[in-house]
Amino acid sequence: MDDLADKSLSPDREPLDLAAMPDVDQLATLFAQNLLFDSVIDPSQAGLRQVFEAAAGSVRDLLSERWVQTERQYDSANPKRIYYMSLEFLIGRSLANNVFNLMVEPVLEQAIRDKALNWIDLIEQEPDAGLGNGGLGRLAACFLDSMAAMQLPAMGYGLRYEYGMFKQSIENGWQREQADNWLRNQDPWEVRRPQDIVEVKLGCSFVMNHGRLELIPNRPSSLVGVPYDRPVVGYGNKTINTLRLWSATSHDDFDFREFSSGDFVSALIGKIAAHTVTRVLYPDDSTEMGQGLRFAQEYFLVACSLADLVRRFRRGNSDWALLPEKCAIQLNDTHPTLAVPELMRILLDEAGLGWDQAWDLTKRTLAYTNHTLLPEALEKWSLHHFQTMLPRQLEIIYEINHRFLDDVRARFPGDEAKVQRVSLIEEGAEDKVRMANLAIVGSHSTNGVAAIHSELLRKLTVHDLAEIFPERFSNKTNGVTHRRWLALANPNLASAISTVIGTGWLTDLTAIAGLRSVADDQHVQDLFLAAKSAAKQDFAGWLLRTSGQSVDPETIFDCQVKRIHEYKRQMLNALRVIVLYNRLRANPDMAMVPRTFFFAGKAAPAYQRAKLIIKFINNLAGTIDGDPAVKGRLKIVFLPEYCVSLAERLIPAADVSNQISTAGFEASGTSNMKFMMNGALTLGTRDGATIEMAQEAGEENFFLFGLTVDEVEASRGYYDPHWHYENEPEIRAALDLIASGHFSENEKGAFTPLLDSLLKEGDRYMHLADLSAYMRADEALCANYADRRAWARKAILNIAGSGQFSSDRTIAQYASEIWQVKPCPVA
């Protein structure tokens, strides 16, 4: 992979000023002051939560001056700034990450020890912020980290959800959802900015009717966006960027006149209805009301953020023509696509510009990242929602579409089929706006997030638009912040790496390639094996302490942790385990390396098939646990409530990373990168970024299997899963065992829908086509694991090959090729 990063995007950092670092006594003083003045409590009487808040408050005190100075620097230098809009930011916990990036870890940990406190117990008091759900939100968080580390003038814009998507528990094998009230306690990191509120005008009103939110059309109303800022700490420098999150409320928040007149209910209803807009991440959109609320969330994010960034732009620039020279707005997936008509509305109606100039400025300012190849996942919004909430924006979309289709007809005369395919409006029983088409037409850049994904995006998903705008399409393979996912999450391995090649990899992960030359060194292999063993022991201890589940760290830790979805094929993994289980039942004396299979991930509440897969995995786990023939040799653990904090514990301990999506369905993947840089070997298909990872580490150090993208496409219309059932005995035996009720003794027929999806419904994601190849790759993996030094060598080469998968590299490419933004170091 070519390193396209401009060297100017990695400026030399000043050496760490140890004299400016707080000492233990200073930090202890801050800590005591925070306990006394914020919690108003005698430090000797403080509970763990109060101690955490005081520690976090002390860290925020340390960074506050840099935070203010960063914004002052941006205002005075007036550089081009990046505004990253995303409906999700899966930031996890902040205390340890901020301490690490500030480089005050030794001081704070010493201060904690002096007070006879446990650092781990303290960290556990902070909930994972309920601001995201999956890879999309975690990518956004990694990107913010990299932008601050690279001293780029950047700001993230999102929503301040009062509740996360949900907290997951498992009851009788089933996923159960509970409210994720992550803001139950005060968040010590956020700063409310009431002076920067934004009014958002809608063409309808929200009301509460018997506890349900309803829309009243033709009754214009306003929401108020209140910003809450969170610091984004640059590693080893003085940059503190901002993540600004918007919370919705009503215009006056409370109607005192109605309350005083005795109409208590009416006085509160407006406030409650407005707050509902940012009450929960991803409301259930299986109902029309849920869809309306989701639509309102997306517009609220866009309207608040654009108003705010335009206000910032106008503080230092009087000429609207400079907008693309000073603002780079990145749309993270289609969720913020309403920025296209909203920015046009601002430029037309508020700035008074003509159409042609407004359209030119809009396109040059906006850029779009696509994250999916699944047609059903490309957002489309009913015209009804636009007509009800955003009639002016709909007028603008109609005009954009009219002019665009005139151009298409001129370029492709007589090709009305193409015109219909690229139109921003999808006509049918219910006309809808195609948000991906709007994002592509209304921006100057569309990028995919892995080489194969970008190629398929151009060739298949939006082929006609790519033909019309070939210059707008590019690839930016995703990355992850190695500082959090390796240095912070896996200190034993990080220390070993620094011992061998120095610490330069912390700011330039390409330096980790230095491990290639020592992969055969037995001392280096011993360092790796010791670090992996320590991580496995730590995870096993934590799991026993927190859940009562016992796992053997001497077994292979074989992991598949990600959102539960049929195309990600957790069911394929479960079938693999059943085949292994059948082999042991048929031949109890056969040699088999003991395995522990870890699954984790959430299913969307309305996605019944995915929830049934979770149930099946848990039943399978219970059956295997209860069978003495396999005890100690096979074990399945489903880890509930998968989140950043759990991933930070499990990924360093993993030996095997399953990346087994049907080829051509995964856009990129980022968990694959985290596993790779922590020395887990990949058992996977040639899909997403796994292809590029194998190129970097060498395919001989991966365990790849299954149909390729071309083979999957070629099989459409011909694939018959029954052939595999009839001709491959192990597949037939596995499916027959499920059908017999072996895993559902008291729940007859519970898993019939899963069998039907594989045999009667055509096996859309081709589980059976890939299962035998999966088993062969699995056998090769186990044979390699038996030779610990050979395994260590492969793992070290994987770590050495992970240098291209830092989000620093990704952001450097965005900055130089899409945004044209340079660093703005803080003095």
UniProtKB/TrEMBL annotation:
Pfam family, one: Phosphorylase
Keyword terms, alphabetized: Allosteric enzyme, Carbohydrate metabolism, Cytoplasm, Glycosyltransferase, Pyridoxal phosphate, Transferase
One GO process term, biological-process aspect: glycogen catabolic process
Signal peptide: none
Its EC number(s): 2.4.1.1
Gene Ontology CC terms: cytoplasm
Location in or out of the cell: Cytoplasm
Cofactor: pyridoxal 5'-phosphate
Ranges annotated as spanning the membrane: none
InterPro entries: Glycg_phsphrylas, Glyco_trans_35, Pyridoxal_P_attach_site
Gene Ontology terms, MF aspect: glycogen phosphorylase activity; pyridoxal phosphate binding
Catalysed reactions listed for this entry: [(1->4)-alpha-D-glucosyl](n) + phosphate = [(1->4)-alpha-D-glucosyl](n-1) + alpha-D-glucose 1-phosphate
Residues with PTM N6-(pyridoxal phosphate)lysine: K674
Taxonomy, superkingdom: Bacteria
SUPFAM superfamilies, per database record: UDP-Glycosyltransferase/glycogen phosphorylase
The keyword DNA damage is assigned to this record: no
Biological role: Allosteric enzyme that catalyzes the rate-limiting step in glycogen catabolism, the phosphorolytic cleavage of glycogen to produce glucose-1-phosphate, and plays a central role in maintaining cellular and organismal glucose homeostasis. Phosphorylase is an important allosteric enzyme in carbohydrate metabolism. Enzymes from different sources differ in their regulatory mechanisms and in their natural substrates. However, all known phosphorylases share catalytic and structural properties.
NCBIfam families xref list: P_ylase
Family: Belongs to the glycogen phosphorylase family.
Protein name (record): Alpha-1,4 glucan phosphorylase
Source organism of this protein record: Acidisoma cellulosilyticum
